[in-house]
Amino acid sequence: MDELNYNGFSNEENEIKSFGELNNTTGENVDANINGDVVENAAQYAAENIIENVDADVGENAAEGFGENVIENAAVGVADKRVENEKTYEGSFVDLKSASYYSESYTKPKKRKNSVLLQMILVAVMSSILGGSIVGGFFVFGVPALSPSVQSIFRNTNVQNGSNDATSGVDTDYYKKVVIENNADSSVVVAIAEKVGPSVVGISVKSTTSISDFWFFTPRDTESQGSGIIIRSDGYIMTNYHVIESALNGRTNTLLPNASINVILPSDPDTPHPATVVGTDSKTDLAVLKIEATNLPVIEFGDSDKIRVGELAVAIGNPGGLEYMGSVTVGVISGLNRTIPITDGKELKLIQTDAAINPGNSGGALVNAEGKLIGVNTAKIGGQGYEGLGFAIPVNKAKEITDSLIQYKYVRGRPSLGIQINSGYTKEIADRYGLPEGVLVYNVEIFSAAYKAGIQKDDIITEFNGVRVKNYDELEEQKNKYKPGDKVKLKIHRDGKDITVEVTLDEQK
């Protein structure tokens, strides 16, 4: 299947630029001649000239064509009727893995006057000309107002305290519960914003990067901003790994020279609190920070295994950076267990929501109607055609990871081989040199499980305990079915021969 682009059509279909090439779609040749000029791009002509009359053959005003769905209208022909086949755009055909993915930390840009206003005007003009742009979710500075019908649903809702289940695995004395006291005169969303908002903090990350200036590398200070969630009253903060990644040495998880991480509390936005890194986990995009503070307002944990599609979802964070700290967006749970690719070939199973998640929201809270944390905002599918696709790490997984990071400084229970692989080894390369598909070993860590089993650099792993593996993802999938200490057999191609070695899996630290 062709990869779908922003308007739901395949790349091949979108190569059709001129009206003449749309002949098979519109039912007639629309090589429109307007005042002697051939229109080759309807959208461009609409934007620049606001089509008043599209050819004597059409005989209809463009605006009327929009209102009456006249196929001859050039803009409608391009935007809505390019291909009459029903299969050109269905939800099931949108491949999230082919979409552009970006995580949601916010890099503070230099201020440019009137740029935002100009973009908003351009979007409004293009929407009015071409029609039909739908924005998923909505964004508010403060608390959104609900319609009377929605308010009537949530009025008289009695929100009870959660059980102590959310704090299992960590000393429960450290946790404070957020209690939402609702009444007939306030909506659940207002109560959530007032009670949960103090538990969502701002995170400012400063680091120095080297910028190439032809012959030289010039150091430049950069600042990125994100969100975090207070999970213990004595200063423990949960956030996304990618929010703080730029300030860390990837091998040691320590701060780089001239780098800093500061936490900003909603109750005292003018006082940055220096943070230390307790632990990180790039596989789940989670990290734990620690600041010197006490009696902090702790968010209440919910149960992400019990949420249902269609439930109310409220995202609280700092979209656009700390300038809009504590912003609230409202939507619903749109989907569960969405497998979304992230960096380095990793994938996460996430909660999908249409509550707006924008740069700076990373590490912020996604809560339910009771004000309980159900997810950690982490990502959005970017690009045109993907509005309203925000994602959050399920809180049950997030809590499991952060509990382990706090107690052990790493995630316990993960098996490890102790190898680095060459990701450039593909089926095409293997076929070219007459080698088998598999995982090409680039490096073997000293004293690791692979080292002890005799695995060497340039070995090609083709089977894991009898299961054929053709790439790193398949190797990881099989490895993660086992526990540290388990014995497995790997088939390896080395020097033109296949050999089998037994490996006792280590624990990844």
Automatic annotation (TrEMBL):
Q: Which residues cross the membrane?
A: 116-141
Ribonucleoprotein listed as a keyword: no
Q: Which GO terms describe its molecular function?
A: serine-type endopeptidase activity
Any idea which UniProt keywords this protein has?
A: Hydrolase, Membrane, Protease, Transmembrane, Transmembrane helix
Quote the InterPro entries the UniProt record gives.
Chloro_Bact_Ser_Proteases, PDZ, PDZ_sf, Peptidase_S1_PA, Peptidase_S1C
What are the PDZ domain coordinates in residue numbering?
Answer: 405-496
Query: One of this protein's GO BP terms?
Result: proteolysis
Query: What Gene3D superfamilies does the entry give?
Result: 2.30.42.10, 2.40.10.120
Against Pfam families, the record matches this protein to: PDZ_2 (PF13180), Trypsin_2 (PF13365)
Name used for this protein in its record = Serine protease Do
